[in-house]
């Protein structure tokens, strides 16, 4: 799970960088953690066979309980 989160962080930073470079967008750094959180939930939830948790668990960071 940790490896997936690291990949998601890198992906979100890269995506924000591309929007700034190619679309002349203003970087909104508050948006990056929110995107990491939501994409992280979707990626880990849909790819993990062993972990069963809800959005509420993910939001409270109580995934391992």
Q: If helices are DSSP runs of H or I spanning 4 or more residues, what is the number of helices?
A: 3
* H and E order: HHH
What is the typical, i.e. mean, pLDDT? Answer: 83
Q: What would the principal axes of the Cα set say about the shape?
A: elongated
Task: State the end-to-end CA separation.
Answer: 14 Å
What's the total count of β strands? Answer: 0
Helix-strand category: mainly alpha
Sheet with the most strands, sense and barrel status: none
Could you walk me through the main structural features you see in this protein, from its secondary elements to its overall organization?
With 65 residues, the protein is an all-alpha fold. The chain has one domain. It has three helices and no strands. Helix 1 crosses helix 2. It is elongated. The two termini are 14 Å apart. The model has no long low-confidence stretch (mean pLDDT 83).
Blueprint (SSEs and pairs):
Layout: H1 2-23, H2 31-47, H3 55-60
Helix pairs in contact: 1-2
Name the features.
65 residues, mainly alpha, 3 helices
Summed up:
It is built from 3 helices and no strands. The longest helix has 22 residues, at 2-23.
